[in-house]
Batch of 2 targets.
Target 1
Amino acid sequence: MAEVIVAGGGVSGIAAAITSSSLGSRVTLLEESERIGVRKSDFQRVLQFGEKAVKSTDPEELKVRFGIAIRLREKVVSADTNKRVVETSREKLRYDSLIIATGASPVPETTRGISKKRAYLMNSLSDYSGLSRDLGNLSTVVILGSTPLALTLAEFLAKKKMRVTVFSTSLLSPYLSAPIQGILTERLKMNGVRIVESAVDSIAGMEKVEAVVSGGTVYPCEAVVAFPRTVPKIPRIGLRLGNFGGILVDKMMKTSQPSVFAAGDCAEIQVGISSSPLRLQSAAKVMGEVAGANAAGRSEVAHLSGTLGFVAFGLEFCAAGQTLEEATRAGFDAGEFTYSEAGRERDSDSNILSCSLVYDRNSHVLYGVQMAGWRGLSYADFASLAVSMNVRLEDLAYLESCFVPMISGDESPVATTAKKALSSAR
Ligand SMILES: Cc1cc2nc3c(=O)[nH]c(=O)nc-3n(C[C@H](O)[C@H](O)[C@H](O)COP(=O)(O)OP(=O)(O)OC[C@H]3O[C@@H](n4cnc5c(N)ncnc54)[C@H](O)[C@@H]3O)c2cc1C
């Protein structure tokens, strides 16, 4: 029976442990904290529903249902990949396969004045609880951060009648094409959220926050909420890293060392001449499952696209794969085409649906899809599949899609966009 050690009990580590154990491995999961399976994606729900809104996993259930040995408060410090031995904060353990699923941790925020009262750094669950307690006393809030966390909070606060300004130099660009960003920015403005596309230089005030300063302009406010950037957290193993500091993995989640796999936020997948950190729960789960299966001797391949979806004031957005900027950075000769259409049987102000396709100019292979508007989220799984299966514009242009009178048009907006992209390329 293969001896599999999983470092980290987040989404990816648990998916890896369950999959590997279900395929016959003897699995030990090591987690440095006292809880496993804490859903970070639930953190924002704390503002509405309190800490009970955050789901976690019962270690006992994993033991009983899957026979996984769970060791809490035990940190994986390093590994000797020649001897196949892991060193933990307690002892040395031998493995046949090792899965690193240690996630990412926040980069310390350095903005001057960040330690003032009513500057909230959103690093952990208790930070969300702290903000939740003070919300009733705030009316003017500045948010520092990017999509989708900053926007979700902006909407939540704006609906509570607070005046909200979001400062970000990269609010939308990591995920969305310029035209789709434009739609989102317009939506936020329409609903009273101010966007300032520059960095905050300092936070001003005597003891507590009174204003932020950006590019010489003073913006009065009562509170600042800062979402941190994160960096991969990696034990000392000597693995090859990608462009963004994560453990470089292939589609089988193999690292540069034999019998060592990596999954989730600590890992980064090769894309062309670059690499891409996915840092999404959806990707972490699939990466964990594939790492777990392959640690148990299988040859599974992950189909990853970094699919993201969110709703901004009722308007739906989804994005899968790469933006034009990312595809170009990866060394591809990429082009982008956006098409918007209005006027089907749709309700009022969410009447428009826009689609951006990013593709290879020569082969027409699809690199990215972004949708905004009416039922935009319903395209998320389709976009993920299309991108991860490397379909071409021609495949999309002549794809049959479901027709429902009064609800859909007689052609998918993705097919329409692909046809128009092809004719513009001729
Ligand atoms: C506020 C917030 C909202 C989010 N919302 C969404 C969303 O809506 N949709 C989405 O797809 N994604 C979302 N994400 C991202 C998603 O939560 C992460 O991508 C996902 O949690 C990554 O899972 P992971 O298992 O790789 O890492 P983690 O969840 O970080 O788990 C890593 C685990 O490893 C443990 N660990 C670390 N180092 C060691 C060590 N040396 N030894 C032993 N254990 C160790 C940690 O304690 C932790 O339990 C959100 C993230 C945040 C912070």
Note: The mean pLDDT is 93.
Target 2
Amino acid sequence: MNVEQAVALHYAHGSLEETIMDALAAAGKDPGRLTPRDLAPVDEFHVGGRLATVAFAEQFGPRPGMRLLDIGCGLGGAARYFAQEHGCLVTGIDLSPEYVNVTNALAARVGLDERVSCELGSALALPFEPESFDGAYMFHVGMNIENKSKLFAEVRRVLPPSGMFGIYDVMRLAAGDLSFPVPWASGPESSFVADAASYRRLLEAAGFEVLKERNRRDFALEVFAQMRARAGGAGPGPLGLHLVMGANAAQKIKNMIGDISAGLIAPTELICRAA
Ligand SMILES: C[S@@+](CC[C@H](N)C(=O)[O-])C[C@H]1O[C@@H](n2cnc3c(N)ncnc32)[C@H](O)[C@@H]1O
């Protein structure tokens, strides 16, 4: 099995749309009147969820009508946010056939299918013509990709000069073994967490200027503390990322929080501009 197959298998669920719809109903949501906000607890598959997406958008500067590429869009939560709140036209790409189907189905359910669509494919071989987009972003995907120079070269190819590229990934802060499983990988064979300095070097080599870097460790620890306070010892509510992460969700989250708390890794934003 190659890395991309292992990554797709790691994220495979089997009945994700049905599981999400059942949970929405259990949370009292009317399936005929769903909004992107209703979906946010379950479709923003990165540290801090919707809060992190909003904070990222403030740095990234989306504009109405902007054609954005969402690399590794997962269930499409961020794509629907940029379409709904900023009027962007978002194309997602993802390795997981199930995520692609769920992204498109959820976009249709909230009436955003004209502004959000997702295709099956690899970030390392983007199925798009040069300069197809005005901007691109990637949330919690680089941890699954070893060849980041190929990744950044592909992103650069589909952007015009001055096109914006934003990254929100879990990055390495210090050496040391990570605990597995984590939300993005079952084991070390499909986890390629790199430090921000490596990202910067590879981005610059691919033709990007790095404008901003923001370590989000304190934000992450605050979000985790709030999650614990809200749960108050009880398990997760009906709607949440545990639905997406499967039976060992609690272990994946615990391992990731442990490694963030220990100072080994931290979610980090990089905002770049194509030269
Ligand atoms: C942790 S999830 C994040 C999903 C989404 N970006 C979000 O924040 O909600 C990582 C996603 O990256 C996708 N992915 C990983 N490697 C990829 C690759 N080489 N090409 C395309 N998608 C990839 C996975 O299939 C998965 O959907």
Note: The chain has eleven helices and seven strands.
